[in-house]
Amino acid sequence: xxxxxxxxxxxxxxxxxxxxxxxxxxxKANHDNNKHGRRNYLMLFTLWRTGMxxxxxVHLKKEDIKEDVIVIRCGxxxxxxxxxxxxxxxxxxxxxxxxxxxxxxxxxxxxxQVNNIIKRYAPGIHAHTFRHSFAVFYLKSGGNLRSLQLxxxxxxxxxxxxxxxxxxxxxxxxxxxxxx
Length: 180
What we know:
Structural class: mainly alpha
CATH topology: hpI Integrase, Chain A
Low-confidence stretches: none
Oligomer: single chain
Number of strands: 2
Number of domains: 1
CATH class: Mainly Alpha
Mean pLDDT: 87
Radius of gyration: 18 Å
Number of helices: 10
Strand order of the largest sheet: 1-2
CATH architecture: Orthogonal Bundle
Largest sheet: 2 strands, antiparallel
């Protein structure tokens, strides 16, 4: 008997949040009055708007924030890459890092601290969920798969392709819009 695509072992898909769910988490962080509330909000906002890994965030230096990109130096696999940077995020990052030396880590936190901060505002959510959510939102908004691969720093396109499946949850809704 011939095998079909339905015979494959199901792929475990990463969890991705909707834009509205991310915005609710960001709103909680933005309204936090503790002494690190501003920093916490900016870290989460940066993860959401860039899709960077936690290790990239932890090692982000002021000198890595350029006019329209963030330069990731020696990221996973010891590879450098650039991530597009919106004007509003750049302004927030540079304002936050205004009095810092250019070679100091902007947020001065560990990976564990980032994960604890996320748990504070979104119990059960992991830092990598922001990365998955970015990728799905990027594709749903019309972003190109190859560009997403470069932003995320994946060495193989097939690693990035899993986000097509996640972004395809609207396929049935789109199909139902067709008037036959």
